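User: Working on a comparison across species. This one is Transposase from Arenibacter certesii. Can you predict its structure so I can line it up against the others?
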Amino acid sequence: MKRSRRKFSASFKAKVAIEAIKERGSLQELAAKFELHPNQISNWKREFLQNADLAYGPKAEKEDPDSGTGPLYNKIGQLQVENDFLKKALGK
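Assistant: Here's the predicted structure for Transposase from Arenibacter certesii:
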């Protein structure tokens, strides 16, 4: 039976990378603790350190979740009014 690949969240990867950066234990100990291969921990640590400058860089403009909903709510309202009008017109 084929075993599927495990997928790890970004928060888990960051947690493991931070533990590796602290160097309180060897890679072998961390690998046993988190049930990972030591090479995977090294890769995540390297990637974490390469992208560390992004944490303090200029803030990326995050899309406001309400910015795209305004026009949609307007359209829903318009369709509701049209629906009500047609129901009344057909009811006569």
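For your comparison, note: The radius of gyration is 26 Å.

User: Helpful, thanks.
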